Automatic annotation (TrEMBL):
Residues 46-94 form the Nitrite/Sulfite reductase ferredoxin-like domain. It comes from Acetobacter fabarum. This is Precorrin-3B synthase. GO terms for molecular function: 4 iron, 4 sulfur cluster binding; metal ion binding; oxidoreductase activity. Pfam families: NIR_SIR_ferr. The keyword Magnesium does not apply. The lineage of its organism: Bacteria, Pseudomonadati, Pseudomonadota, Alphaproteobacteria, Acetobacterales. PANTHER family: BLR3264 PROTEIN, FERREDOXIN--NITRITE REDUCTASE, CHLOROPLASTIC. InterPro entries: Cbl_synth_CobG-like, NIR_SIR_4Fe-4S, NiRdtase/SiRdtase_haem-b_fer, Nit/Sulf_reduc_fer-like_dom_sf, NO2/SO3_Rdtase_4Fe4S_sf. It comes from the Bacteria. Keywords: 4Fe-4S, Heme, Iron, Iron-sulfur, Metal-binding, Oxidoreductase.
Length: 431
């Protein structure tokens, strides 16, 4: 189906009776162009949400206890683990959301200057310093980049979603962290800067940090309108501006599902637990902190793949609600908060996704999105359901913005279809 048909008369309708027709109820949602931050709470259908980005993705048990308590007392007790390794607390009142930065800064969960706090945000290999196969200089590289970004006041002009990453590889292989500018470990203890389609020649991490900051400055001063992660050609433009030598990288799928399914023991006393669909309760976070403090090294390592990693573990931790079975279908499912929490969502998502878990064909992935933005999973899934005015549209092997091939009117129609998909999958597998 042509993309131009998506908002018009393209998708076939299939309701409980099997009647088909024409459907076009997928309105384009408002794209805000920014993400909530410590000093930038966002109003949602279930109240205000606030976001915390722990330094280098590491949360001390005492900090986790505090966040769980604040989420329970001042919010609605729902906490999201985002694809930027941040924690998102939901359901705050306006006054509580305004007071939250002071609480967070006092607990070491942010900087008091809003510009510095925003600039320091980055993704870092979650197991840096713990995984012997992760580049030894990863933490030092990340700290150096963080210091440089905090001091580069002019980079406050970067778009709200502009991101940096330090990718040391290891158990979570290089190439999985996605950002506009990435410092990636290479052979011989050297680092390469990746920006859009371009990869710079390997160098020391100190020089790579300088290149990364220079590329960000060039983005600002050349008034680019699209981030390198959205348009790979922007990286080539920035390299040309700086006269930076590099090579063009072929685009590769992110394969985030590889890490979503990496739960249980990781070796070296590390143990990964998954928050189903990136959502946990305040009680679940409190329980994870309790295990970290009493059985481990007191640190919760956040990943961009909906998992927490605990270190210093001598036995498998047990936390009610968290997934530790690597074969659980919940590890292959993404869902946003849905209409109960987001004004742009046209339908409920989380309960539907949970109920579809046992109906998901073996090895298949599922994304249930409340709108076309696909916030929970911008990438492709085997099955993507998009809520619309009249039901749920199905996109196969695509994202929430992809071509809708059919519509299910009512949740029962969705369940019936997925029962059929599971049977088809079993036949294809010879079961």
């Amino acid at each position: 189906m042509a993309g131009s048909d998506l908002l018009g008369s393209g998708a076939q309708v299939a309701d409980q009776t099997g009647v088909t027709g024409v459907y076009g109820g997928f309105a384009q949602p408002e794209v805000k162009g920014w993400c909530p931050g410590l000093f930038a709470p966002m109003e949602a259908a279930d109240g205000w949400l606030v976001r915390v980005r722990p330094t280098l993705g590491r949360l001390e048990a005492a900090q986790a206890f505090l966040l769980a308590d604040v989420a329970q007392r001042q919010g609605n007790g729902r906490i999201g683990l985002t694809n930027r390794a941040s924690l998102q607390l939901r359901g705050f009142g306006a006054d509580a959301a305004r007071r939250f930065p002071e609480i967070a800064v006092a607990a070491g969960l942010g900087l008091s200057d809003a510009g510095m706090e925003r600039r320091q945000a980055m993704l870092v290999s979650p197991l840096a310093g713990d995984d012997p196969s992760c580049a030894a200089q990863t933490v030092a590289c990340a700290e150096s980049l963080r210091t440089a970004l905090i001091g580069a006041e002019e980079l406050t002009a970067l778009p709200g979603k502009f991101g940096f990453a330090v990718d040391g590889g290891g158990l979570y292989p290089t190439g999985l962290l996605q950002a506009d500018i990435t410092l990636r470990a290479t052979e011989g203890g050297l680092w390469s800067v990746v920006c859009g389609a371009m990869c710079a020649a390997p160098t020391t991490y100190t020089l790579a940090v300088g290149q990364a900051v220079a590329l960000a400055r060039a983005f600002v001063t050349s008034h680019q309108s699209v981030r390198p992660q959205r348009d790979r050609a922007v990286g080539q433009v920035l390299f040309q501006i700086l006269g930076l030598v590099g090579q063009v990288l072929a685009p590769k799928p992110t394969q985030a599902e590889v890490c979503c399914g990496r739960v249980g023991p990781l070796g070296h006393g590390l143990f990964a637990l998954s928050a189903p669909m990136g959502c946990m309760s305040a009680t679940m976070l409190h329980d994870c902190a309790t295990v970290a403090a009493t059985q481990g090294d007191g640190i919760l390592r956040l990943t961009p793949w909906h998992t927490l990693v605990l270190g210093g573990m001598e036995q498998a931790p047990v936390v009610a609600g968290m997934v530790t079975d690597p074969h659980s279908p919940l590890l292959r499912i993404w869902a946003c908060s849905g209409a109960s929490a987001c004004a742009q969502a046209a339908g409920e998502t989380e309960n539907l996704a949970r109920n579809l878990a046992p109906l998901l064909p073996a090895g298949a992935s599922l994304h249930v999105s409340g709108c076309r933005k696909g916030c929970a999973h911008p990438g492709s899934a085997d099955y993507t359901l998009v809520a619309g005015d009249q039901g749920y549209g199905l996109v196969r092997n695509g994202s929430a913005s992809g071509d809708v091939e059919s519509l299910f009117v009512g949740e029962q129609a969705v369940y019936t279809a997925f029962e059929s998909f599971k049977k088809e999958g079993a036949v294809d597998a010879g079961l």
